[in-house]
Predict the 3D structure of the following.
Amino acid sequence: MSAAAGSYQYVNKRQRTLVTPEGISVPIVVASRGSRVGALVLDFVLLYVGLTIFVLLMGWIAGGLFDEIADGMEESVSGAGEFIVIVFILILFLARYGYFLAFELGPRGATLGKRATGIRIAARDGGRLTAEAVLARNLLRDIELFMPLVFLIFAPTGEMGNAGLAGLAWFMVFMAFPFFNKDALRAGDVIAGTWVVEAPRTKLAEALSTQGAARGQSGVTGARYEFGDEELSVYGEHELQTLEQVLRDGRGEAISAVHATICGKIGWDPGTGDERAFLEAFYAQLRAKLENDMRFGKRKQNKFA
Amino acid sequence: MKAPVISSWFGKTQIEAPADIESAALRSDRFRLEREGDWRRLEEILKRMERGGLRRVSDEDLLALPTLYRTAASSLSVARETSLDASTLRYLESLVQRAWFQVYGPRQGFGGWLRSFLFGGWSRAVREIWLEICIALAVMVAGTVVGWLLVVQDREWYFRLVPTQFLDTRVPGASREVLQESLAVEQDASGLSVFAASLFSNNAGVAILAFALGFAFGIPSLMLLVHNMAVLGAMLWLFAGQGLTVEFAAWLSVHGTTELFAILLSGAAGLHIGRSMAFPGQRSVLTAAAESGRRGAAVMAGVVLMMVVAAILEAFPRQLVGGMEDRFLIGGTMLALWLAYFFAYRPKNIEDTA
């Protein structure tokens, strides 16, 4: 199996159809585990950097107070010092629990890391994503991530003895949970009835059949390319969409390579200088034929079909 | 993510007119060009909604949103059957998905959620898990008794149960005066607010853990409850040994009625998840888990609030108010308030939470 075929199948494996309450089916792709780990790492880097900047800023603003706190932890601390310590404790608490919550409750349904990797959370049943669901999935982060990490760090040192190792094994089960179900649900997703899906933001590209030689004549040579039925029947939908990609990318060497291949296949003599116009015309006529067949219920997946 | 275009910084961007429809050689492209305006308008509305909620969207656009969403969805199903233009199909799929997320996005902002939560949602969620609350209460009482009995049998248990930072003067064999001293008031209030903040952070963490562990069929939640209450049982034994039971109870009741109640609720919420996963009834396990998880999460949001109250009570009134009657009064009032709020306060269900 070639690499391309493998990745094609992999995408299909994560493809789901979600039926909304009014009966419209929305195609949805479950986010890959890799992009979720990436998003998590990004989020933690952001949190860490943010906290570091915060600490540095506080140190710069209120440097003197820190010395005082360090000196007299048990003794009386002045009101301002006390205030700063409280702010610290609360900020740490908020960073741990509030960051994910606040972002996932927003209209994008994704933390900054998730946005960067193009994924978001959604309700599994196609209904509304409620505040309770977001809360539930984030409360479980504790036993899925923080606890296993603590055990990972301390259990191998032997300080906690066999209990530590047992705890490690126990929490690793939670950590490994997403790897043992097909929707990559973590325990928090199970509890909240959510899942993490891809949220692509594609832009609408130009219509190819309105430009260039697709309309008939080549802009460069004025030539008119006409293809016969058997010349067009060598390719199928897969090749058509590959050709579409080549035309949209518009890379010169790819265009001439594809031009040479197609000419070889249909037995034309490949000239030079007017490759793009040739391909545009071929694309438009091949698509017209395949779409016409489609309307009569005849589909040709690829050139082997 | 695309780079911002200058024109999009100034209000509405003009939606460019599609290319001459008749010029398209293909029927499927004509189909696309005829509907492109609607799609782009929908995309524009979605972009504004994703950026900053509903306030940026005009009423007119908001009214058009459901229609545009359905138009896009039906365009998608037609295009799937008639068009081989991969990029248009991909665009439509992502457009319909984005529209769906916005149409079915969170209906209320954080403020609205908080209001419906405080005025009804929270107490309703608590009432819905009454069975688990009873079980958790029984387990907590049992835990206290177990702690007491263990220490009675063997003093060494005290050191195993009570964590080291508690080990100041309150150890077995301490004299009555020393123990009484530990229940006395602080001389001034400085340093107590730091104490409160760290107490809150710590206790809320424990409560969240008790809830989260409910995922494993609730057993670890119960174990956590038993362990925490065994500590209390051991300390109770210590103070009872010197005839200070009532004083200790008064000292504990100031914040304990709130804090133990919160721990009770978090254990019960965890247990609720565990129970509904073990016995889902007619529903599938995943549905049952999701339903109970959301209910439990509502209870937990309240538990965090209760922990804030408990920490403030623990740091200030408990350390500053000395009299036994006063302490009982504060603790008792808090308990009565919570009970009234959860079980007597039943506003009409205005907002459907489904």
Summary: The radius of gyration of chain B is 30 Å.
